[in-house]
Queue: 2 jobs
Job 1
Amino acid sequence: MPLDERLFRHEAGRMVAALTRLLGVHNLALAEDVVQEAFCRAADVWKFRGVPDNPPAWLMATAKNCALDALRRERTARTFAPELGRHLQSEWTLAPVVEEFFAAEAIKDDLLRMMFACCHPRLPEAGQVALILHILCGFSVGEVAAALMSGRDAVEKRLTRAKQVLAGSKGLFDVGNATDFAARLPAVRRALYLLFSEGYHSASPERAVRAELCREAMRLTALLIDHPRGRTPATYALAALMSFNAARLPTRTDASGDLVPLYDQDRSRWDRGLIDEGLRLLTLAAVGSDVTSYHLEAAVAAAHARAATPRDTDWTQIVWLYDMLMAIRPGPVIALNRAIAVAEKDGPERGLAAIRAIHRPDRLARYPFFPAALGELELRRGDRSAAARHFRAALALARSPAERRHYQRRIKACDDDAARAARAGEARSAVIG
Amino acid sequence: MGDYTFLYRGGMLSASPEERQKHMEKWMVWFKDIGAKGLVKEPGHPLESGGKVVSGKAMTVSDGPFAEAKDLISGYTLIAASDLAHAAEIAKGCPILQVGGSVEVRPVMHMNM
């Protein structure tokens, strides 16, 4: 049977989570070392003797044995949790106690517990996302840096600080406490949303990297939905949003890695299964009176997913949804997306007016889609020199070779008389799906 | 045909879970490949890094060996090859070479009666 290519990464999360519960959150670094050792042993034995029947169980058992060794080795050098500490001195009690810690019922909620622990209120959101990738998804420091398109040193610092906060917290999060659970759930959803967005909107030219981040965010969101206290309407809405967007992921870039605007995407290649799943989740989200930004963003994504062709898109509904979004989570990017939707509904002049009305547009100064949207609307209005000027500004802000190529093509489209007829359609490229 | 022992030294030290799994899978592909060609007599085993060294007439038992990780034998395999050159050629496919390790190829001594 072929091994799941993510087996080690995913089991790393479960193993660190279980070991941290056993050893105490202040011994997080020791837990990570034990996991490293367990992988080392597993890989050595498997390469000579073949993969066992149940690889995850084998790995967890190896982690348990490595933990026992570590406890014997470290019992005088470190402090452990009191419930474990008093069993440490006797070999008679140590093994059975550790065995209990690894019972199926005991490890069931470990990943969820660790996920909540990673969203500690003292951590900045960026630290939470990095920590989730590192601890729960098994990314090394270098792999986190590559995935988040950040420098290795910066990510290393961010993770070190985040782990200090985690290790300094009183204990691992208690998922059994309903009040604490409900209080931290929004932060967990937010971190998963950011993780997904990191993959979905990343300028990384590596399509595989981006898809992987989206997949991880969806895997962890499914974990939230598996828990009776985690599956609230807002969580269903978040899961729906991820499903709709993931359905479009394969068509967002072409074979050479270039961005394909929503209008030009081959809708027949959108993943119908994921769209249906999104619609199912959205129905589950429509319970109660609470409308979150996830509900509204999912509804926008659903409106795109439902339109068989770009022409069939219900822009009136989308503008209304963006109005609602601006009311509960006002921000310049939402305002820009709203302006683009206004242009689709009422024409480029109205769209440009809506862009000009954005409060403090300086917040979009580093955002290439801002001048790009201006360019698309000017082009559609027929002002080719203004459009070219905006696309050149977008080009200067481009974050990847793919974005640069895209804006170069748009600049060329402004000069290209022959393409004039096609331009009316192409000008709709402002909508980045 | 003759028997040859592959003694592996060193190998992958620190690595991310994904890198470690990928490296392990390379070993599996290699073993499968040479196994399908009938070149593996016994896949052998990995070895623990620590142990005891018993030495001298006094039968002194000490902890060890304490060689550096890169010099420690980390596993062995019994290979069937047509001659030493062929065995060395087979060893070239071992993934340990990609991560700083080495393969020592030693003919098994047989008595021709």
Job 2
Amino acid sequence: MERTLTREDLLKLAAAAGGAAVAAGPVGLARAALAAESGRLQVMDWAGYGNDGGQAMFAQYVKGHPSNKPQFTYMTNESDALAKLHAGQKPDIFRPYVGWVKYFATSGLVQPWDPKLITNFKSLNPAMVKAGQYNGKQYGIPADWGFDKILYRSDKVKPKAKSWGLLFDDRYKGKIAWFDDLNMLTVAGLYLGMKSPWNQSDAELARSQKLLKSKKHLVRLIWSSETNLWEAFGSGELWIAYAWPNDWVQMKKKGLKVVYMSPKEKPVAWVGMLMLLKGTPRRQLAHAYANAWVSVKSGKWLEDNYGYGHSNTLARPSSADLARVLQISNPKAVGLPNAYLDRDIPRRAVYARRWEEVKAS
Amino acid sequence: MRLRSAFATTTLLGFPVAWLVVFFVVPIAIVALYSFDVYTLFPEQHGFTLAAWRGFFHSSVYLGLFWKSVKMSLIVSVVVVLLAYPVAYYLALSGTKRKYVLLLILIAPFLTSYLLRVLAWKVILGNNGVFNSFLVWTGIRSADHPVSQLLYSRFAVMLVLAYVWVPFVALPIFVSLDTLDRRLLEAASDLGASRLQGFLRVTLPLSLPGVAAGFLFVFIPTVGEFVTPSLVGGTSGYMYGNQIADLFSTGFPDWETGSVLALFLLGVVAVLTLVFSRFTQMREAP
């Protein structure tokens, strides 16, 4: 006999479930809420972090939630993600970097996480956790991290000094790569000794832009994808590059004699931040996904396979070389005196315009 | 009868016109609204303004980049026409029975992806590529001193674009030559014209509509090209199309300026198309 549920039955069931959840405490409440969420978790992430190679990062989540597997869309950068969000795309989670935390936290597009629902949260690097906060709320769950430094071929290049100036060295015309990001203006500001490279005045920005424009003829490639950089660097087209830790790992794997140099003006450190969209219908699932991402297992996999650091302090890479370059045992590696942690650029639109003009010049 | 004919015309034209309106006119109108700030990506900013247009016309950088792209496209278009013309001429007028087979071979690269065809040039032009390996093998260059300007340069962009577009240009020229009335050539010959004179005074003028069409086929897409420059162009091969794409999604979204750049390109291309189509029609007039 077919049995149909009446409205009263449904209300009774809901009341019973709610009552059971209250009786079981906050964890029970969370479980009940989790059970109520449905559909696939929508994740907007960078290429290589979805089902195109990054499955290990969220394997634990998939195991626990087989009927809510993540569905990925991709972002090429934060600006691209911002445009997509404003254009109506509604992922549950996306992953901008630390310099955008304040922007997104104040944009009204995201909501804070509840760290209590992330069991691995207690193992995360406190400095990175703090960097994910705005007004005392946790808008970003720190995930991967690394540095912007200079990669160069030690058999071809003899730097005059450990400085960002190597990216502007006339002796290596046609062998230099910059990164396609307005952060190049920040680097120029650091090189020129400015007090606030992330908040330059108009006059300072003009100086930074002038430097970049005047040195652009030395640059062979302004890279926006790492594979592009690896290809050009690996084939000898490039000897010097603005690079991330993984680029150094990859070039070492190719057997090249490379140095990953910390400039005296200090490198820039960055931390990827998982962010939760406002109004997401899968809040609990998103927390479970973030928890999987910041587990020790995922962290070690990320370090071993992608060559970046991971916010979980218990995760350690297999390579001693990588551990040394990342200063993995230094919990304050991403901050002073070691490096400047990337930060909010209050006049980002102005910086972006200036950087576009550099490329177009 | 007339009514039925009118109905048939409306039905036949209705779908393509509707298609054009929905997928061409409306999107362009939306882009135009973005350029005037009537539409914005960010909900808090609104209001009609000409700021982005003013910024564009006062920026020597954007106009300079546009001019650079125009020059590159002109060079590519001229080179491609010069390369394609003899090929089309041979196919159309040599009397070979295999002309359609040869034509098929000419367009065979189109059976593979555009991206693959462009990426293949990296293998050819790179420091360790086919060309440099050959130079090293012949002893012309040492392995430590390859010709490194081949890749990630303006030259690389123009070379790859020329390669990609040659078949596109050969086709319209082939069509105009293939439909040429051969009796005109015979008449020229009977009247004492040499083969060169016959070509210069009969064949070439009559094939100019095909040449003009082919030229436009290359110029229009290459002036706004951004895939090839981003793959093989490096810093010096950066084009106007790359700037449009970057304004929409790199650094911080600037859809207003990006829309202005896109519309300016569209306007220039539209004017050029009008001029060329006028020229083509004049040539075709009896």
